Every structure is written in structure tokens, then in C-alpha cells.
Amino acid sequence: MTVQLSCIETAVPETCVQSHESFHIANALCGPYMSDAGWLPAVYENCGVKQRYQVLGQAIVNDLLHDTRISQSPFLPGKIGGPTTAERMAIYTKEAGPLALQAARKTLQEAKLSGDLVTHLVTVSCTGFQAPGIDVLLMRELGMSPGAERTHVGFMGCHGALNGLRVAKAFCEANPEAVVLLVAVELCSLHYYYGAEPSKVIANALFADGAAAMLVSQKIPGRAVLASGSQLLPNSEREMGWVIGDHGFGMTMTKQIPRLIEQHLCAWIETWLRARGMSLGDIARWAVHPGGPKILEAVQSSLTLPATALTDSWQILADYGNMSSPTVFFILKEQNRKPVPGPTVVLGFGPGLIVEAALLTDSPVNPIPLR
To answer: Does residue 367 sit within a domain?
Structure first.
């Protein structure tokens, strides 16, 4: 039997920030030296993000937009480097679990499945740490068995959801009775960079908050998970970094990332597909993590894809921003609205520089009945 993913659901915080508001927030937080940076408006105009959601509430946004301090938040300007890592993690501890729970509850409701039938829980997050973690909250609130097997995939970056999917797939292949709940949650806004380093300011323009959940099993019909793959690109270790500092987790993305993807992606994908009896021409759909416009353009160029091939990725980037690991699940959920028979390749990129891939198909596969 074939492992299948199903019932993808998502959740975002209540506060939605429009692109023009994001630009004003950047001017407020990155210091007076940024007001003279002629390139900053172009970053926000061309980043592809029209709106995004964040757990830092509307009161903080209003303070930043109107130069007030009503919220008394540590995220307001005035402190060198912005909030401490401890202050940022306090919000992660408060907000990450409830957001993940929203997505997970919707997934179980869609499947008409009670929590006690979930045998494995796989959680994914790179934007925070807490113990007990979000997995314990999910187990308690969803009524899962205390004996459900928990695995956390942490600090893997934007491709973390595909690492989580690989773990879930392995559990289901080892035990055909397994029903895995896979949940990814990221609060990227907590790591907003207060300063003028260009690569980090660009990251400010892209990242957002969100959560997604799905079921992985041989029991519930959905999209078949045919294979997964991973590739470390050569001479790329310094191009993308994710480092814990005194003022949050610092993200670095160099200008070389699109070039490396364009140069190396196609050869590896062709080899990976050939080993599974397929070619690029056999792929009906692409679900590519929208790390930013230049990354999507590099993928399209490397694989010689038509302009419409990455429409779903561009749309999710525009409507939600780059939410790190859950983002590819948002794309897959959007694709579920309009099923297309045939294979789908899912791609994500993260520190390494590593490409993670999954091969799915919308073609129907007979499930094992739930007992």
C-alpha cells in the first residue's frame, strides 16, 4: 500500500499587515540610518508580498505606524538590537502552541477523526524552543493517547516541513496501521532584525507567521507520497545561515543563493526523477517554497518551466509571505482545490544550502480501512 497525505489545514494569526504598512514598520524599527536608504522602498515594492500575518498584535502595529507607545511592547523601537532572545521566546511559548492547535484541530475535523486514533505526532518548528513543547499541548488538547509517539523536527529552516513529511512517511511504511499528525508552526516575526545589514533587512520584508497540519497514513485517501529526496549544493555552506543571537535568531541569505539554485537544481532533479522512472516532462505540478521572488525565478529558469508553473507559489507568497516551514503546505492546500492527475514535485530550500524534495501524485490510491 502507499503512504498518503490528506486533510491539509492551515492557520494564521489575526493581525494582517499590508505591504505599505510593512515598509513604515521597517522605517520605524531599523533606525534613522534606514530612512536614507534609497533601496529600501524597492525591496518592499518588489518582494512579492502584498500582505502577511503576525502574532505581534494590532496594538503593536498601530504604535509603530503612529509613533506611539500605548502597547508598551518590548518590540517598539528604543532598545539597541530590539527585544532580547528571552523576550522573543516568551512570546513564542505563548503563541506557537495555540496557532499550531488551530491548524491541527481543523485537520482532525476535516478527517472526522478523533485524537485518540492518532498514533504518531510529528511537529516542525525552527523559530522557537520550549519544553514541554507544542507537542505536549497538542496531545492534551486534541485528546491524543499519552502513548502516542512524538518526534520534533527543529531548526531545519524553510524546508523543515519536508523533513517532517519524510519522518511521517517512514513511520507509516514501518507500520501500516500508523496514523501520523504532522504539524508545522513558525513565528518568523519574532525574529525581526533591528539594524541596517542589507541581507537581514531583506529577510524582514519576506517573513511571516503561520501554521499547517496534515494527516499521513496508509488509511486515509489523499495524495500519494511516492518518494523524498535531499541534496546539499556544492560550495554553499556560507550562503544561508540561521544563528541564535542575543537579539533573536539571525537569518542571513546572500545574493548567491539564486545563482546556486539555477546552476545546480536541474541536474539533480533530473537524476532524482530518472531513478524513479520519470522525467521533468512527466511532472504535472510544482509546489515550490517561495523563499522570495529571486528564488522562484531561479527555479523556473533552472528547470525551464513555463511562466504558469509556479502560479500557486507566487500566490501564497503574495497572500501570506514566507512563513518558513509551513509554507509548502499552504501551497498544497491551494492545489487541493483544483486536483490535477499526475505527479507533483514539492521543493524547499534551507541552510546548507540544501534542497529538499517530495514526489506526490493526485492519482487515486486505495487506502487501508480505519479500524
So the answer is: no
Side by side, the strands of the sheet bearing 223-232 are 149-154, 120-125, 179-187, 209-217, 4-11, 223-232, 354-361, 343-350, 285-288
Instruction: State the DSSP string of 258-327.
Output: HHHHHHHHHHHHHHHHHTTT--GGG--EEEE--S-HHHHHHHHHHHT--GGGGHHHHHHHHHH-B-STTH
Residue 339: per-residue pLDDT: 85
158 among known catalytic residues: yes
Q: Which residues contact 202 (CB under 8 A, 6 or more apart)?
A: 43, 47, 253, 292
**What confidence score (pLDDT) does residue 365 get?**
52
Instruction: List pLDDT tens digits, range 324-343.
Output: 999 999 999 999 998 888 99
- Dihedral pair phi/psi, residue 237, rounded to 5°: -60, -25
Q: What is the pLDDT of residue 212?
A: 98
In contact, 158 and 349? CB cutoff 8 Å: yes
Ranges of the chain whose pLDDT falls below 70: 31-37, 363-371
Give the count of beta carbons closer than 10 Å to the beta carbon of residue 86: 9
Could you tell me the sign of the dihedral formed by the alpha carbons of 41, 315, 21, 187, in that order? negative
Among 223, 167, 241, 229, smallest CA distance to 342 is for 223
Which pLDDT does position 312 carry in this prediction? 97
What is the H or E stretch that residue 345 is in? Answer: strand 343-350
Per-residue model confidence (pLDDT) at position 341:
87
Total number of domains constituting the chain: 1
Residue 46 inside a domain? The answer is no
The CATH number assigned to the domain holding 273 equals 3.40.47.10
pLDDT at residue 198, rounded to an integer: 82
Q: Which of 248, 210, 194 is nearest to 331 (CA)?
A: 210
Candidate list 158, 172, 188, 266, residue with the active-site label: 158
Residue 8 lies in a domain: no
Tell me the β-bridge partners of 185.
211
Distance CA 315, CA 312 (A): 5
pLDDT at 359: 97
Is 292 within a domain?
yes
Parent domain of 262: 223-361
